[in-house]
Each structure stands twice: as structure tokens, then as C-alpha cells.
Design brief:
single chain; mainly alpha; MetI-like fold
């Protein structure tokens, strides 16, 4: 083996080793959460790396001791509503910002992006007063409205960038055929924007699914809470005793849908993230 081939082999080995380290570092917390969710009692405090026993009592307990199924339904409803509204307003705003020439377009786009830079705590008090004035406190509509403040700016920004790269000839040909702006958006541009729509929609879904601060502040009863708040408020028999098995089981339950969505749409996600990276 020549020195050149040896260096190439060592480089490949180092690359594969780095990939394995990254995968283990990323997957191990979720894997250990699954192991912990299958343990009860003193087994939770024993370090095991393989499932020596399969006890699904924690999963049953999560749904029996609190309205966790209702909390899951709330999260699904709110997240899907946020995705639909974000994509609808994002596509229409992206068409205006990316294809229509008007004064102040750049300033408006920077303002939309600037809104997303504020931390949630900075807008929490103002959003609370607005939610209460609209009589949406302890209401899922209030959560949908609040979540739009951090999903819509990102969606508009990404879709505007993607919209700008679409060929002008398509729009000009549609206009010559008498197509309205709405027809151009829905029948000409949207079929070409599926990778970007899937990517931004999935990221908006994940953000809404995992959101905690607004959900904790704007909901009051167990029936209106989403899963992050429901997990945080799981309590044990006493103030100083937490049912870690139930918490791990609930965490696994709410993580599995995200993993499934990513695996289903992974090709479109990659296409959406790399769109516009190479121009020929």
C-alpha cells in the first residue's frame, strides 16, 4: 500500500468515525429515554444500555392519570393550524415581496425578519394583554394566534428567497394567457415550490409542537394544555417525588411523530434546503 493510498484510507476511516460519533451523540439521549420509559421503581436509577425488561406500564399510566390524549390532540390541532396559516400567508406574502416591484419592499422584508429576532420573553407581556383583550385566554385559538408570531416571519423569509429564484418566463407566459395572480401562485409557482413548502412547513410544525412558554402562559386548565406543558406539570405522589418513568414515556410519545415526519419527508427537506444553492 502506497503512502497516498494509506492517507486516503485513514481519511475515510476518520470520516466514518466522525459520522458514527455524531450519530451516537444525537440518537443516544432518545434511545436512553426509551430505555427509561420501560423501567419502573428502582430500575430507573440503574444504568442499563440494553432493554433487559419490557414494561409498558408507564405508557398506560400517562394516559390514565391525566388527560394526555386530549393534550396530544391539542398539540396536533394547534400545530397543523399554524402550519396551514403560516404557509398560506407565507406564500401570498412571498409572491408580493419576491415578484412585485414596489417601494420599501426591502425594508418591509427586513422588518419581517427583525420580528423573529425578538425573544419570546420580550413580547410575552404584550402578547398576554392582546390575547386577553381578544378574549382568547385559555383557548386554542389564542395559541394559534400567538405561535404565528415566530413561525410566519421565518416562513415568509424562506419562501420569498425561493420565489425570487423562479424563472420570470413562467410568470410572463401565465400573464399572457390571462392568468390572475392567484392562479399564478396556485397553479404555476406552488407545484415548483413543494420542497420549500415541505421544509418550512415541517420546521413550523416542529416549532409549534415544541413551544412551551406561550402554551404555559396562555392556558390554564389541563384540558387546554399542549403536550410540552403537560409533560412539565406531571407530578408524583409528593412534591419532591417525580415519576420519571411517566415523564420519559410521555417524552417518547411526543418525539415519535416528529421522527416519523422527518423520515417521510426527508428527501423533500434536503431538496428544499439545497434549492438555489447551485445555479447553472
Amino acid at each position: 500500500m502506497t503512502k497516498k493510498h494509506f492517507k486516503r484510507l485513514m481519511g475515510q476511516v476518520g470520516l466514518y468515525f466522525l459520522v458514527v460519533v455524531i450519530i451516537v451523540y444525537s440518537v443516544f439521549p432518545f434511545y436512553y429515554a426509551i430505555l427509561s420509559s420501560l423501567k419502573t421503581g428502582a430500575e430507573l436509577f440503574r444504568v442499563d444500555y440494553f432493554p433487559f425488561s419490557w414494561n409498558f406500564g408507564n405508557y398506560v399510566s400517562v394516559f390514565r392519570e391525566q388527560p394526555f390524549a386530549r393534550n396530544l390532540g391539542n398539540s396536533i390541532l394547534v400545530s397543523f393550524a399554524v402550519v396551514v396559516l403560516s404557509l398560506f400567508f407565507g406564500v401570498t406574502a412571498a409572491f408580493a415581496l419576491g415578484r412585485v416591484q414596489f417601494r420599501g419592499r426591502g425594508v418591509l422584508l427586513l422588518t419581517i425578519l427583525g420580528v423573529s429576532m425578538f425573544p419570546q420573553v420580550a413580547v410575552l407581556s404584550g402578547m398576554f394583554e392582546l390575547i386577553r383583550a381578544m378574549n382568547l385566554y385559555n383557548n386554542l385559538l389564542g395559541l394559534i394566534f400567538a405561535y404565528m408570531i415566530f413561525t410566519l416571519p421565518f416562513t415568509v423569509w424562506v419562501l420569498t428567497t425561493f420565489m425570487r429564484d423562479l424563472p420570470k418566463e413562467l410568470e410572463e407566459a401565465a400573464v399572457m394567457d390571462g392568468a390572475s395572480p392567484w392562479v399564478i401562485i396556485t397553479q404555476v409557482f406552488m407545484p415548483l415550490m413543494w420542497p420549500a413548502l415541505v421544509t418550512t412547513g415541517l420546521l413550523a410544525f416542529i416549532a409549534a409542537w415544541n413551544e412551551f412558554l406561550f402554551a404555559l402562559t396562555f392556558t390554564l386548565t389541563n384540558e387546554m394544555r399542549t403536550v410540552p406543558v403537560a409533560i412539565a406539570l406531571i407530578s408524583g405522589a409528593s412534591q419532591f417525588e417525580l415519576p420519571w418513568g411517566n415523564i420519559m414515556a410521555a417524552s417518547v410519545i411526543v418525539t415519535v411523530p416528529l421522527v416519523i415526519l422527518v423520515l417521510i419527508f426527508q428527501r423533500r427537506i434536503v431538496s428544499g434546503l439545497t434549492a438555489g444553492a447551485v445555479k447553472g
